[in-house]
Fold these 3 entries.
Entry 1:
Amino acid sequence: MVKVNDNYLKLPGSYLFSTVGRKQREYQAAHPQAKVIRLSIGDVTQPLAPAILDALHKAVDEMGNAETFRGYAPDLGYEFLRNVIAEQDYKAKGCDISADEIFVSDGAKSDSANIQEIFSLDNKIAVGDPVYPVYVDSNAMAGRTGSYDKNTETWSNVIYMPCTAANHFAPEIPKETPDLIYLCFPNNPTGATVSKTQLQEWVDYANKVGAVIIYDAAYEAYISEPDVPHSIYECEGARTCAIELRSFSKNAGFTGVRLGFTVVPKDLKAEGVALHGLWARRHGTKYNGAPYIIQRAGEAVYSPEGRDQLKKQVAYYMNNAKYIYDGLKEAGYTVSGGVNAPYIWLETPNGMTSWEFFDYLLEHANVVGTPGSGFGPSGEHYFRLTAFGSYENTVEAVDRIKAMKI
Ligand SMILES: Cc1ncc(COP(=O)(O)O)c(C=O)c1O
């Protein structure tokens, strides 16, 4: 008789955003007049930039013409896109990455979930705490994380690296040696970053112990400070220990369009085996490529007009981030993030739990945010607000929070 993958049965329910949504709906039903503002979800709200729309329209027309129609895309992605990524995201920034080390995909969520497949189940993973949940859940589905403890909300076979105010929300090298290390900077949910020197320490460590770093740089476009690395390949030695994930979701508003890429340098080996070949094999077998139309839209992200328009879009969100950050500080909150990332991470006032503050904020300011505890135990007593709303809603939400008694 058929059996299920019982690793799935060990997964805790996707409690966080479903509970956030349910609580908001219940509140709205009980208070139909309330204008509830959501600063909870990490989704963009601004429309696609004109340069991207033009590229999409043009590519759609090409698909309707026998001479320019395209079928399956090449396994790694179209060269026109991989070349421009290699040039502008890497070579122009002094990183030694070539187009044939770039694998185009439908986004960083699937890549961050799938990348673990090319590694043995014996590997032990290390993650920041709090963390983007996909890294842990995908390893749990594969059977790499041991058993789940409901009380501590942790897996027995995962190394958690607490990211707290004491370490400025940057994980420290763990006592136990991991095999796979997930790092995400700028970070979701804390908005924290690391300096190039700090990231170099991770690269040196990974090379020393023979670990691989999965570096999620989905929020790279939001970096505003000069000493914050945009890519792990800015660090010496990263070609032999790091895989980098990138997304078009947050820099170009592609959350509903879907495009991303993963970089696997050819020098990166495990047990003498080049991981590039394994990921290429996986890509070729399990994936038929991001659509031509979307890859053309991705190319437009790198055009002079596209770059200019998207810079303004990112600036729009970061203006919101600054408004939230400054407003909360003024109101007496302890706040971080929001400078190199569209997320503001605040300490809940008066020792409230993350969920207590969620309820308080919904009731007293009609604002919805995300409880930090939903991202891991070290997120307890913290709260995430996003800068992805409209400016008008952001201003109103912050003004209401400032007027709220705490
Ligand atoms: C850290 C991080 N990585 C990856 C993703 C997913 O990106 P994509 O939309 O490209 O799948 C997100 C989305 O919120 C994220 O926060």
Note: Residues 304-330 form the longest helix (27 residues).
Entry 2:
Amino acid sequence: MQLQSLLVLLGATALMATPILDDAPLFEEDTVDGGKIQWFGAPTVTKLARASCSAIGDVNPVCDSDNAADSDTCWKFIGTLQADANANVYNDQGYRRACYQVDGRKCCTQWNKDIPNLQKKDLIPGMTRMAQMCNEGGISGKLNNVNIRGVCVNQCLNDNHSCK
Ligand SMILES: *[C@@H]1O[C@H](CO)[C@@H](O)[C@H](O)[C@H]1NC(C)=O
């Protein structure tokens, strides 16, 4: 086999092994401050590579003019996580998306790999950075390859778009 087609084949295999975030089932729903947080994810086990990525404070988010979430709702979401900061996100079971809904509006954060021992507070720095830096008529942003508890992930904040 030619090297090139071998590489294409390897690439395709890697793609197939990537979990499809958008199909993740709802695992849990919490009611907080009159709003609702939903956690999505399928039980998966991911081999962890050694972290080679930057601290959240050193990465500028890529902002998106589409898929914007309501700014107040995102800040409320951050507040609810802060109020329950040490709670476990059961990320060992693959929760990778959380949405906060209140008054018919929603704000969601997503991350693209399992993060062992993830706690609610670990989601806050990235969410805060995107809420501050990607807020042109709503919040929609993505942090590429940031370190959360030693795992290199992409984290997003938006109206429930995917975060691959
Ligand atoms: C977010 O997206 C997931 C996957 O498409 C879907 O199952 C869920 O209902 C959505 N949640 C909200 C609050 O839009």
Note: Residues 23-158 form one domain.
Entry 3:
Amino acid sequence: MARRLLGHNVNRRGRTNGDESIEIPVAKDLEKDPATMRREDEITFYNREYPLESFAIAESASAEWAGTVRDEFSPETTKLYEKFQKEMEPAIDWVRHSGELQPTGQPTGEDVTVSLREKAYELGYGEVGFTRFDRRYIYQVRRKDVRADLPHAICLALEQDYVGTQTLPSLEAEVAQGEAYKRQAELAEKLVAHINALGYSAQVSGPTWHFGPMIPMFVESGLGQLGVNGQLLSPHFGSRARLQIILTNAKVTHDKPVDYGIHKFCEVCQVCFMRCPGRAIQGQRLWFRGVEKAKLIYKRCRPVMARYSGCGVCMKVCPIQKYGLKPTMDHYLETGEILGKGTSNLEAYELPDKGYFRPGKLPVFGAEFFRMPVGRTEDHIVEGYKEGLAEASTKEEREKVWEKYRESMEKALQQGTTIVDMGMDLAN
Ligand code: SF4
Ligand code: SF4
């Protein structure tokens, strides 16, 4: 490989408040206009005809299954999640009702972008951006809860602990994630108090309670680009970013999407695609709901996550996460190569019952490993009822099948959605 031609530089603020700004070089062969990665008409069409729904509802059948598998396979992970869920309970409640808080000051009507940005950095957020709140990304279940009078989205990324993250998949990494969620809740309370004091309203999405997917708005506000691993790759900490959005009616100026070269870089890199233990990541992007993205195969991911502490190998092995975007892009410009690719430092990981996997080696799982219920719990119960009826030959057997169906359906409807993975899947 050889040195690449420089296309353009992206100037970004330093990693933490007070740090010098950085210049990220984007090689000419990696340039791609962000506007060409979205089709607005398609996003609108899918939103209207096939509205988004929370995974906790759309895939509720596997949530309970995942919990049972995790309890058997890794009870210490269950214990850790339970601890964090308990600690997060007040925060979940606060986030859910944050839109009901009343402004405490008098609004001036002036543009407060600079003041909000500075306040957010001062509090400890690592990336801050502004964009239009795109209501096409609200889950069906949330439509009644999201305020209609808050047109702007403040996108806020918080860095998760570096050292813990490099041990993925592990309990240590899950602690890093749980601590980041707790910190997000603390910071959001402070920022919302600030917005309310300026005389404006705010409503928080994340941690633990989300209006819908947040990455599209982070991309629109120039805070990174979507990686093949399905995660936001932000300039300073790649996918080691925990995301939050605060909706507001304060007057702000919107940022613009930025071409960091990530879209095409992923096409050359492919490390997460090659290292995923479940072979759940697709190397090639396709058009899905108006966005050009690599679609993750959920059925191959959840069984791995359930057994191996939430997995996250796709986060760990990403060079942009491990080394940062600037060193990764500097290296690409200089050599045409992917920093760390092919080295154990970047690509190796360990699974407790399977051992250590250096570059080129992957664990093998049988078909049984991936067998899990898919879709909604209710649909699953109806399917079971139909099968039971087909097999029943007497009136008594049919009544038993009916009784089992009724009990299971009542239980499912009462239960709502199952909380898994530290409450991140909470949908009701
Ligand atoms: S979490 Fe694990 S199984 Fe799922 S996509 Fe990432 S690496 Fe693959
Ligand atoms: S590992 Fe490589 S291909 Fe995967 S998201 Fe990171 S940069 Fe893109």
Note: The two ends are 52 Å apart (CA to CA).
